[in-house]
Amino acid sequence: MQTDIPGSQSSRFRFWLTRDARHFQIAYLGGFLVYGILALGWEAEWMRYLTIIVACLVTQLVAVRLTTRNYSSIKSGLITALGLCLLFKANGFATLAFASVLAISSKFLIRFNNKHLFNPANFGIILTILLTGDAWVSPGQWGSNVILLFMMGAAGLIVLLKVGRIDTSIAFLASFGGLLFIQNVLYKGWPMDHLLHSLTSGTLLLFAFFMITDPVTTPDAPKARIIWAALVGLVTFMMTAFFDVFDAPIWALFLVTPMTVFLDKHLKHEKFSW
Predict the structure, then answer these.
(1) How far is Cα 234 from Cα 255, in angstroms, rounded to an integer?
(2) 159-186: per-residue pLDDT in tens?
């Protein structure tokens, strides 16, 4: 049986692939974009995806050229672009490009303690919705089924275990899901399948396994991340239950993000670095 020789091209490729969690994130998000195109009929949207990806990568390149000269961060720009492709919609290509530029620019312009504060995709989505009125999040495009839940959960766990942020996902889902259970099942007497339907939205799972687990913009200390993610879950529940906000997680993350400054200041921990 043939084995890899240490230092061989195959070994070097595997080392390169596994040493950076961003490779898993790109594969994870790219895989679901392909799934949407091939299985869910999104093929008519390819110009939207191209606009977002090009705008994100060009903005990232320009910003890196003017600042750090760390061109490996292009991978982070691609992750942001894929996240926007999966969550964000707009009527015009200019609006898509505007959101992409806002998202990437926020990483270089809005910083605290030598790290960017907002999740870039989240910042781009919210600011574009507020400023243009021409954009939205489309949670219904994913549908809801067991196969999708399994795929997203399994792939998401791979990514989270690699970046060490699974505690954030668990805290968010436990907080939001637990409050929904109390309200819908215990208080209102609704069946469990209604609760499961609410928790298997493609947008919610992408949010839980991708956006809220961004290792650069989450609080540094494990205890702080749990508090922060539970608070995001609480705000998501309140916006969903009392104000019928269908894209509540996206708004909740934006509103709670400034708490990261307070938590990082009072619960010290080593900062994450790619």
Answers:
(1) 12
(2) 877 787 889 999 999 999 999 999 999 9
